[in-house]
Amino acid sequence: MMIAEINNKQKSGSVTDQSPVVDNRGSALIITLLLITILVGLVVNFVYEVYMDSSAVSNWSNAQRASYIAKSGQNIAVSFIKQVKLYPPTNIREIALPVAIDFGPASSLAVMVEDENSKFNLNKLTDDKSVDSLKKLFEYLKINPDLALLIADWRDPDSDPRTSESEDLAKNGEFWSIDELKLIKGIDNEVFAKISPYVTATSNWFGWKVNINTADLPVLFIMDDQMTITLAESIIDYRKDTPFETVEQVQNISGLEKIGINFIGKSDVRSENYRVTTRAVVNDVTRVIESIVDTSSRIYFWREI
User: Fold this and answer.
1) In Å, what is the CA distance from 298 to each residue of 42, 201, 203, 209, 281?
2) What is the 3-state secondary structure (H, E, C) of 188-249?
3) 46: part of which helix (H) or strand (E)?
4) Torsion of the alpha carbons at 215, 216, 218 and 223, rounded to the nearest 10
5) How far apart are CA 299 and CA 305, in angstroms?
6) 96: DSSP letter
7) Following CA atoms 143, 292, 250, 132 in sequence, which dihedral angle do they give, to the nearest 10 degrees?
8) Is 7 part of any domain?
9) pLDDT value, residue 76
10) Per 3-state DSSP, what percentage of the chain is helix, strand, and coil (rounded to 5)?
11) What angle do CA 247, 253, 257 make, to 5 degrees?
12) Nearest to 62 by CA among 288, 289, 303, 281
């Protein structure tokens, strides 16, 4: 009788002896899915780290290649600059040198050489006359001329202020780069953008001479306190077809017969100093090197970014 009842219950499904087996299978499935999820996460993280490490190594390698290529561009420019003095004076202020070397796929090099003697050297701010020249430049550029006093106090070695607060935090030493101008109170990005095309901070300042064949109008304008915009334009017109071969030729220009004599000793028809900018690209990684080099291959400034 009891056996029959048990059989009937099993047939009707009222017996629950098998339910724990079903639960164990479900738990096992969940645990398995969790393990798979964890393993997938670990694999993805591993692959990502490998990718990042590989990318870092690749970028470092590309950066190293770009740096070496940029340096080779500097060597190309130095070789060119050494030959400049062998040719007649020119009115060309800057030139992009052709690069015929193949540096491999996805690699390129651009070399730019600019005449640095076409600019006013901030490190020559050693007397009142040079400070007046800088003030005249600022007036032409419609910049507060008093900023010239702050720049002069930044440059000179003494601590005597030319104007209020001009010696506060002053370097009292030579400019290493014109970027230092941004550290001087009152010189913001807008002012810097106006000044930078016409000034340099080359340490080779003693005996610095402006190249009258390449100097822009604002620089020519400040070379003498009697110089006018019209006379500066006359110099530019004269040199367009025939660059000056001697400084004395300035006196051949109408209106410069007397002023022209003041150019002798502080200007030249050739340049000794050049700014070289090389830009190398390797697989979208860029390296730029800036330097100032003279015709004897001496380096006065070097920066790699």
Assistant:
1) 56, 16, 12, 17, 26
2) CHHHHHHHHHHEECCCCCCCCCEECCCCCHHHHHCCCCCCCHHHHHHHHHHHHHCCCCCHHH
3) helix 19-84
4) 20
5) 17
6) E
7) 30
8) no
9) 95
10) 50, 15, 35
11) 80
12) 281
In angstroms, the CA 25 to CA 212 distance is 93
* Confidence (pLDDT) at 196: 97
| 146 burial type by CB count under 10 A (0-12 exposed, 13-18 middle, 19+ buried) | middle
Mark the ranges of the chain whose per-residue pLDDT is less than 50: 1-3, 6, 14-19, 51-53
H/E stretch holding 128 = helix 128-140
CATH, residue 193: 1.10.40.60
pLDDT score at 164? 86
> Which among 104, 26, 102, 112 has a CA at the least distance from the CA of 73?
112
How many folded domains does the chain comprise? 1
* pLDDT number for residue 31: 77
Query: Do residues 125 and 150 make contact, with C-beta atoms less than 8 angstroms apart?
Result: no
Residue 59 lies in a domain: yes
Amino acid 231: pLDDT:
97
Per-residue pLDDT, 49: 57
Q: What is the pLDDT of residue 38?
A: 76
Range of 189's domain? 17-305
Instruction: DSSP letter for 264, please.
Output: B
